[in-house]
């Protein structure tokens, strides 16, 4: 493959136009837009962008690129956070956003097959009349192709699992243009290597995902929400540990630290106590959610929760959760004009309080501003490190803090990324975390993409 | 690699003795015992059996074999069903049953790390005082290494998932003797390719699993069980579909058809109606299991269930479930002296009734005897096809019936194996099911085991 971006040949562009007709762009604006995600990572525009309409078109485009050793970068909505879509070595970006059809809903089997450009809100809108929903919610209204490719999760994972648990089967275009189906629609299978899980989280480096079969769930009869403030972080985390050990099937449990709560109060004119706070959501029958909430309240009180606001009313739920939903923008508003760098470590639950407390100390000592929010049921938390994009010294301190936090998490048997993925931003941390196992990943990459044309420069270096 | 079994060289045996000392056997009895599983598949004894005591020993043994291109076959308890442990090309069997230590329980994180020879009953015995348990129950008291390697599941999978969902991390000895750890203990991770899921279900063909970190669950406060008889199979299956759509978190739901119920009645002197029957188990709080049971009873009545026996008492639960537990032996007793061939298709739930009805018709037309039991919440069902091991004509008819059933299941978007795995018995069915995707599996196998020494002749042909 080309180490440096090269101009795409007229010959290739002409072959691509033969496949997608006018749905090819080499305009600077389109290329720029497709070369970066929502993170602070530098953009690298591809040489051209094609807007694919079918698996067959994707296959033909990949074949045309493969014949010339030209990189291929799949693109969904560009909401990734580790530089996943940057065309580090140039090449052709395949924009899948126009492949946005819901192909088939199987209500009795509680599954759905979609094209990769379908967004999660669009899917749930589509499903509304069936009484079913797709629970994975990473915050952004991401495409399901992108969520699959980055192994996304989010607030509901403590109850429903992440993308890993909820993808049943995929159609994938391989690096040579072959089209494979990774599995059928059976709920479980022991038939050979788990190709589905191989592509979930592969970030476009092994193939292009062009169809996704997902598990669905019945919309719960009753939903309730609760908010509780704790004297300290350990109390909040211990409440979560005991809740989960007790088998209470919380649908969501999110932690906001005192800095984040202060930011939320200012941003949305609320008056929550400026303390470590847990937001809960419960799904079930009316009596079930009441029982769950009562049990959690008992546990929270045991750990010193001062108040426990509980509601089943939709408007009040929305209001309770507003603080969580506003967290990112409330954080940014702490310093107008700043950008945020989102971190993503995940540790075993027993180490979470310690990891957050040490990280908070490090933030304060570094003179940085960073609210903390966490999908605390999974041990996953995010800092939003506020940065002045022009202050290179501050950026260096932020990167150093992130590195210390990641090494702390790894030392606690955790991971450098719970849900954002590796992209180009965490390639070195992947080695720190996995050691020798990265050479196994590299062997797999080289076996399935020998010319390294699939989103090169992401996950593993070749 | 060697296409035909060859004598192991004195040189190799001497090196192996240097590693495991007196824990090497070339006795015919030991070799025979390690060359076959519990299935009807022909045994193939390995050239030698080593009883490993540590990851480092396994690594040294694999290195010694790799240097000579000699096959390596891992062995747990030998309870597999598709010829998984047969040494088709000779080689060295690594018996892992003496690596049976529970290494670490992390109660707060609800996980445990075990050596591969730990059996599931032993693990739950060990965990009893912690209030935690490991739910996966494939029937046999298999080793956790074997359960991981075959992607086992069983009766609890509808609620707790299969091995795929419950393995957090593995230590694996690769084909060249390198030792890797596939992940850390965080509940979720987006850090690179999912090596854990790659080895879950790899049947010893990519490496030898030497440590397993598993998810645990709190022992439910209350457990209740129920049995209901239905006018026909569709009514039973529709009850299950509506139960799952309603979000009722049944822990177990097992189907026994009329032939199986008749067998159970005769075997255990019971008097259940000879009809399609569902066995349920509910886990939760006392009021929760009562609510679940009441909801399921309403649904069952809607579909014409004649009676619905429900109990929370441990003895009565045991009695209710006895029929399910006895199913296999009750089936065999229908024809004394026979052996059973266990089949394992799994289809989307919406096709399950149709698949079973057509299969039952086929069984009856073929003049064979075969009770049906099913993990019906997952769409997975088993026939126990009774065979006279000396009647080659009958065996041929049984194999033909199994093939028709598998092709029927695949045509219904199902799989040839829900939980038993491929071994050597389903290599051709894997191709029928996966088509081109098998070439991707083969590329992965060749990348990670280029000399094809890891359990050769299983999953994919090289």
Give the topology, please:
The structure is a homodimer of 462-residue chains.
Chain A: H1 10-20, E1 24-25, H2 28-34, E2 48-51, H3 55-66, E3 72-75, E4 92-95, E5 102-106, E6 111-114, H4 120-127, E7 132-133, H5 144-149, H6 157-160, H7 163-166, E8 167-174, E9 179-181, H8 195-199, E10 207-215, E11 217-218, E12 222-230, H9 233-245, E13 252-256, H10 258-268, E14 276-284, H11 286-302, E15 308-311, H12 314-325, H13 327-333, E16 339-342, H14 349-365, E17 372-375, E18 380-387, H15 392-411, H16 427-434, H17 437-448
Parallel strand pairs in A: 2-4, 3-4
Antiparallel strand pairs in A: 1-2, 5-6, 6-10, 7-11, 8-9, 8-10, 12-14, 12-15, 13-14, 13-17, 16-18, 17-18
Radius of gyration of chain A: 22 Å
Helix content of chain A: 25-40%
Q: What is the subunit arrangement here?
A: homodimer
SS content category of chain A = alpha+beta
Binned strand content of chain A? 15-25%
Largest sheet entry of chain A: 7 strands, antiparallel
Low-confidence stretches of chain A are none
Tally of discrete structural domains of chain A: 4
The greatest interface between two protein chains, and residues involved on each side, is: A-B, 99 and 100 residues
* Number of extended strands of chain A: 18
Tell me what you see in this structure.
- 2 copies of one chain form a homodimer.
- Chain A is 38% helix and 19% strand.
- Chain A has 462 residues and is an alpha+beta fold.
- Chain A has 4 domains: 10-97, 2-Layer Sandwich (Uridine Diphospho-n-acetylenolpyruvylglucosamine Reductase, domain 2), CATH 3.30.43; 102-218, Uridine Diphospho-n-acetylenolpyruvylglucosamine Reductase, domain 3; 222-329, Alpha-Beta Plaits (2-Layer Sandwich), CATH 3.30.70; 337-421, 2-Layer Sandwich (Alpha-Beta Plaits).
- Chain A has a 7-stranded antiparallel beta sheet, with helices on both faces. In chain A, strands 5-6-10-8-9 form a 5-stranded antiparallel beta sheet, with helices on both faces.
- The longest helix of chain A has 20 residues, at 392-411.
- The first copy, chain A, starts with 9 loop residues before the first helix and ends in a 14-residue tail after the last helix.
- The relative contact order of chain A is 0.12.
- At the A-B interface, β9, α8, β11, α9 and α11 of A face β9, α8, β11, α9 and α11 of B.
């Amino acid at each position: 493959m080309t180490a440096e971006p090269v101009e795409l040949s007229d010959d290739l562009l002409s072959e691509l136009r033969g496949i997608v007709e006018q749905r090819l762009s080499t305009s600077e604006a389109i290329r720029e837009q497709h070369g970066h995600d929502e993170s602070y990572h530098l953009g690298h525009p591809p040489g051209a962008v094609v807007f694919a309409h079918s698996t067959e078109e994707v296959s033909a485009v990949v074949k045309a690129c493969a014949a010339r050793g030209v990189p291929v970068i799949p693109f969904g909505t560009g909401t990734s956070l580790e530089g996943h879509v940057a065309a580090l070595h140039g090449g052709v970006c395949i924009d899948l956003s126009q492949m946005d059809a819901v192909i088939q809903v199987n209500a009795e089997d509680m599954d759905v097959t979609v094209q990769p450009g379908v967004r999660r809100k669009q899917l749930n809108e589509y499903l509304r009349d069936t009484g079913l929903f797709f629970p994975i919610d990473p915050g952004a209204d991401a495409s399901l192709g992108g969520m699959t490719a980055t192994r996304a999760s989010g607030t509901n994972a403590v109850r429903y699992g992440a993308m890993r648990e909820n993808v049943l089967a995929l159609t994938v275009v391989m690096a040579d243009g072959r089209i494979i189906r990774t599995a059928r629609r059976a709920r479980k299978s022991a038939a050979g290597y788990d190709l589905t899980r191989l592509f979930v989280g592969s970030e476009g480096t092994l193939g292009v995902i062009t169809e996704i079969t997902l598990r669905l769930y019945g919309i719960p009869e009753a939903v309730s929400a609760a908010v509780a403030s704790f004297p300290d972080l350990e109390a909040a985390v211990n409440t979560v540990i005991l809740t989960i050990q007790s088998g209470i099937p919380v649908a969501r449990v999110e932690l906001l630290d005192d800095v984040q709560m202060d930011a939320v109060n200012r941003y949305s004119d609320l008056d929550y106590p400026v303390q470590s706070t847990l937001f809960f959501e419960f799904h079930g029958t009316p009596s079930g959610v009441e029982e769950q909430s009562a049990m959690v309240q008992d546990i929270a009180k045991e750990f010193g929760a001062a108040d426990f606001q509980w509601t089943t009313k939709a408007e009040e739920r929305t209001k309770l959760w507003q603080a969580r939903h506003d967290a990112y923008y409330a954080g940014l508003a702490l310093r107008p004009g700043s950008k945020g760098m989102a971190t993503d470590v995940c540790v075993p639950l027993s180490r979470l309080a310690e990891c957050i407390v040490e990280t908070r100390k490090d933030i304060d000592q570094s003179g940085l501003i960073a609210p903390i929010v966490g999908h605390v049921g999974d041990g996953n938390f995010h800092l939003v490190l506020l940065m002045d994009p022009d202050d290179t010294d501050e950026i260096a301190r932020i990167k150093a803090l992130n590195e210390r936090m990641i090494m702390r998490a790894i030392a606690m048997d955790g991971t450098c990324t719970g849900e954002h993925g590796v992209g180009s931003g965490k390639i070195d941390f992947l080695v720190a975390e996995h050691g020798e196992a990265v050479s196994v990943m590299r062997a797999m990459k080289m076996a399935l993409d020998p010319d390294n044309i699939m989103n090169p420069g992401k996950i593993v270096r070749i």
